[in-house]
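Today's session is about reading a structure prediction critically. Students often jump straight to the picture, but the first step is always the sequence itself: look for stretches that repeat, for charged clusters, for runs of hydrophobic residues. Only then move on to the predicted structure, which in these notes is written as discrete structure tokens rather than atom positions. Here is the chain we will use throughout the hour.
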Amino acid sequence: MNAGNSCLTCGACCAHFRIVLHREELLHVPLKLTNQLNEQSFCMKGTDVYPPRCIALEGEVGQGVRCIIYADRPQVCREFNEYELDGSPNPSCFKLRGMVPPPH
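Below is the predicted structure for this chain, in token form.
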């Protein structure tokens, strides 16, 4: 993550979604940070309750946050970004932040 990355101050997705991961991701994600859903699926602790907040999120949402397992975060977290691969704004991200996406 770089200094221009809004994720460094946001964290809205980490305090909104249920973060589900497959058993194979436990090679990287510490088991103690998850709850088992079934034989093959787990979720990050804190995201299976209301209001959700991932156990790996440190800091204050909207002020300054970091993921304590950023380098080893689940695939679903890697795929959710402020901008899509084509450079267009991710509408879900901007909606969570209460913002209108900029024009592409």
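Discussion point for the tutorial: Helices lie at 75-79, 91-96.
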